[in-house]
Amino acid sequence: MPSGRSRFAPFLLAPLAAACLASCPEPSPSPAPAVETPRAAAFVFDAARAWRDLEKQVGFGPRPAGSAALDATRAWLEAELRAAGLAPRREPFRAPTPRGEVDFANIYADLPPRSGDTQAPLLILVSHFDTKRMDFPFVGANDAGSSTATLLELARAISTAGPREIALRFLFVDGEEAVRPQWVDPDNRYGSKHHAAQLKVRGERERTKAVIVLDMCGDRDLRFHRDSYSTAWMTELVFAAARREGLAAHIDGPRDAIADDHLSFLELGIPALDLIDFTYGPDNSWWHTHEDTLDKCSEQSLGLTARIVLAALPDLEARLASKR
Question: pTM for the whole thing?
Answer without folding.
Answer: 0.90
